[in-house]
Amino acid sequence: MMIDKFLDIIFIPNGRCPICKRVIFFSDEFICHQCKSSLDMVGDEKCKKCGKEIDDGKNYCSGCITYNYNYQEGFALYNYEGSIKTIIHNIKFSNCPELAVYMGKVLGKSMKNCSWLEELDYIIPIPLHENRFKTRGYNQSEKISNGIINEFTQMDKALDIKLCINTLIRQKDTPHQLKLSKEERFSNVKNAFKVTNKDVINEKTILLVDDVYTTGATIDECSAKLLDNGALKVYFAVLASGKTNQL
Amino acid sequence: MKRLPLFFFISGLLAIISYNIGINLILACVVFAIAFCICKGDSYKLIVIYCSIIFIFIFCRMDNISNITSSFDLNKNEVQYQGRVVSFPIYKENKVQFVMEVKGAKKEKVQGFINNNTHLLTYGDMIEFTAQATIPNSRRNPGGFDYRQYLRTKKIYTVMYINNDSLVIQNNSQNIISKNISALRNKLTDFIDVNFTERENQFLRALIIGEKGNDSEVINNFNKLGISHILSVSGLHVGFIYLFATTICRILKLNKKIQIYIIGISLYTYCFIVGFSDSVIRASLMLFLLLLANITNKKYDTLNVLCFLALCFILHNPYVIYSVGFQLSYSAVLSITVFYPYLNNKISFNTKYLEYFKSIILITISVQIGTIPLVIYHFNNISIFSLITNLLIVPAAGFIVIVFLCVFCVSTLLNISLLPFLVPVKLSINFILSVSENLIKIPYSYSILSPMPFYIVSFYYLLVFICFGYLYHYRLRNRKVIIVVTIINISIVIILSIIPKPLTVTYLDVGQGDSALIQFPSGQNMLIDGGGQYNYSVGDEIIINTLVHKNIRKLDLVVCTHSHDDHKLGILEIIGKVKIDSIIINCLEEEGYTDLISLANEFNIPVYKNNQVKVNISKSILLDFVYPNSNTLYIDENNSSVITKMSYNDISFLFMGDLENKGEKNLIENKKDISSVFLKIGHHGSKTSTGKEFLSTVNPVYGIISVGKDNRYNHPNQEVLELLDNKGVNYFRTDQVGAIEINTNGEKVKIKTYTD
């Protein structure tokens, strides 16, 4: 429609940096240069399993030592501290799907060096329950996944990885994990997910995508469900992960 | 590619600037063609094409509008016209002013005035009258108000002074929409008239319906204190209307389409009531687009919306860019968009009340940061208290608007009187008025500033943007930009201080009277006469404005050639308002000087007779008060005028005051060298002055006649003009060309006249 096109020219999704709130004048980026460089990236010393930053020189974080997660390995771009919290809050609660796609692109770009990238067949975003999808209007993980796939197809060696939605669905409308303890989080998501179509994921390697990884309860539960239904391996990628000392 | 509206608006702005500084359209097209070739990628090329189309369109439109003049016969007196009132008339004592559509050669908007009005005009009246059409005055003096340009921003090119007796109101023709809205407006004004006292009334009218010009005292105070924005109806009021309408829609649970209609109609009604001022249209359209963004689930972007609206305005009439309201309204919102969220994000408090005060303070600061150069340019002052006054007054004004409109709506809908609810409104109005009246009395509560030169303004904005951390996206490149701009600025300052300043002589257009301002290259300033009229303060309106505009803080010397009011009154009016070192007059004992001398004594300004002092300006500039000298007898006021001769190498000036033939004879007999390049013709070109012999002795190349339009003395005299023509003197008349500014370096002269 004409009006729609016109509105798209005027109303742009990246008019303002979500972190410092400055106007972005002439850039296609969603975050201003200053704020982007202020984001706390996960350093070189990280857990070989879940990808969290660790600072005690060991190979695995305390969480991965005490509990054997179902997934293979994971990748996190930022430490869940400081400005990234604002961004993730915006992605989830301020109706910014384009920001999620943008962050997905950033995530996809930095995943270039992951050794397991070429094994992947499908990307499955952590699903939202129907009710929450309705109120939010979109699934932020799906938008991040869109960004990742967009980046993967533009790589030097283009990867053929497809997005797979509606195969994994959330059947329980669980409350937010935010204020729960570690044990409560695991029990909260127990049996919250369901696989609708076994054939699609049979013998396939899957990348789960979410916004934040803290205890790993959600991702672990999804991985368990996928592996139970015939998936070969499950990896995950998140925008940010809480450091080991948090929870 | 993002921010297309910003690009489009900038290209529109560039078109206006290029037109003004005289850049050829072909040259601009060449630049665009080069840009088109340099740009990589189709989307960029497309943007260049769009921008060039907008550029060319606005450039042509500027050209088009600047050539439009009145379509009426300007030479004929008292012609019969028919017209329709298309604005809400503003009554001021017994005068009234309004805009009308008049049928002439074509239908044209005309600004109409009636002095000694006895009629009651309303919006939509068909009227028949006789009047003389004139072109509005353009700027006649440095720093003066350009009424022609002001009206041009409203697409008005003609002014008519209507003869009150000839006016006949035929009937009222309005369509149903405007009929209802003007009825609503009448109810509103009646409501204000009935319930409020005179003083409150004027303030409320300005605040609620944007009717200004009733009480210039209040508006002047508000301007000086930097709070005039609350009197310009805009965001606050429209925001309230919007909130009101959306709340009703939400309560009634209306669907989105109906919501758009209801809110659109209520905003349009309000725009109509306040007379479609630039800022209120801007605010309404911004809110309407906000509504559209919410409904279509898109992310509202203030900067783009602002640019888009500004673009629409300049596409409609590029001259709107010169409107003060337009400039301040857009730049204020722009500064809020660019600076406020960043500041707000940086500083945070935990308590709600502090957050509220913080947001008001920060919004005020943001607006001030962005608009200071403009405010100084237009109002010539800034207030140190503006922050405090804003803190006190903005909430009070908001309270008044909200309570008043609520009470008005409820009492008209239910037809009941809600007088007790108006008491807090009255209290707030009196609070605001007394705050502004008391603050203005505090010394140094506001300071007068001259407009900043362009390079300082650009440097200021650059600094502000750096302080706010903009210009950071591509760090290296921007650092280069900053360094280059800084170097350019510093070098401009250095170059300006190295280049020798010229001697500038400005013959001001003070109507019937004399006044000339001389700026010496060494930085001193001298004023010869101050003009003077009985119904109009030449000192305040013309001389002070000129001094502020030219950034002159001190007059080293003021010469009053003789004690007649058309030379002296202006000087009386400026004493105490600008620092004066000394005053020179032609006779200390003369009775006409008692007021001047006593006023000068009050301010400790020494007064000398012209031959008591010897003035040294510089080696190359000679300043001599050649007449009257110690041995000439006092004849009369005119014939004893102080005659000033000033020469700067080859170029010399002679200021004659009102010297007549008798005095001229004495002057010649004095045997002083009075030959000059520029001659201020004596006595406004009266036939009693400028004799043949005298003119041959002076032998001027240029003549200046300082004279009022259609004056009752019939100055300048036809014989004098013929004499000047015969002698081959090239003369300028202030009634024809406005002020005349002459710049000279001692060899060459540059003459600039203020009108046309």
TrEMBL record, chain A:
Pfam families with a match to the protein in the record: DZR_2
Stated name of the protein: ComF family protein
Family assignment from sequence similarity: Belongs to the ComF/GntX family.
Domain Double zinc ribbon per the UniProt entry, residue ranges: 7-64
TrEMBL record, chain B:
Recorded topology in the membrane: Multi-pass membrane protein
InterPro entries hit by this protein: ComA-like_MBL (IPR035681), ComEC_N (IPR004477), Competence_ComEC/Rec2 (IPR004797), Competence_DNA_uptake (IPR052159), DUF4131 (IPR025405), Metallo-B-lactamas (IPR001279), RibonucZ/Hydroxyglut_hydro (IPR036866)
Keywords, comma-separated and alphabetical: Cell membrane, Membrane, Transmembrane, Transmembrane helix
Domain DUF4131: 25-166
Keyword Cytoplasm: no
Domain annotation Metallo-beta-lactamase: ranges: 509-708
GO biological process, one term: establishment of competence for transformation
GO CC term (a single one): plasma membrane
Localization (cell): Cell membrane
Alphabetical list of PROSITE patterns matching this protein: PROKAR_LIPOPROTEIN
Domain ComEC/Rec2-related protein: 207-468
Bilayer-crossing regions: 43-60, 230-252, 258-291, 328-344, 356-376, 382-406, 453-474, 481-499
Protein name: DNA internalization-related competence protein ComEC/Rec2
